[in-house]
Amino acid sequence: MSRFLVTGSSGHLGDALVRSLRRAGHEVVGLDVVASPSTTIVGSITDRDTVRRALDGVTDVLHTATLHKPHVGSHSRQAFVDVNVTGTLTVLEAAAEAGVGSVVFTSSTSVFGRALTPGPGEPAAWITEDVVPQVRNVYGATKLAAEHLCELAAHDGLPVVVLRVARFFPEPDDRDDVRAAYDDANLKVNEFLYRRVDLADVVDAHLLAARHAPDLGFGRYIVSATTPFTPADLAELGANAPAVVDRLFPTETQRYRAWGWRMFPTLDRVYVNERARRELSWVPRHDFRSMIDLVATDGDPRSPLAREIGAKGYHSRPTGVYTC
Question: Hey, what's the torsion of the CAs at 75, 79, 80, 86, to 10 degrees?
Answer without folding.
Answer: -170
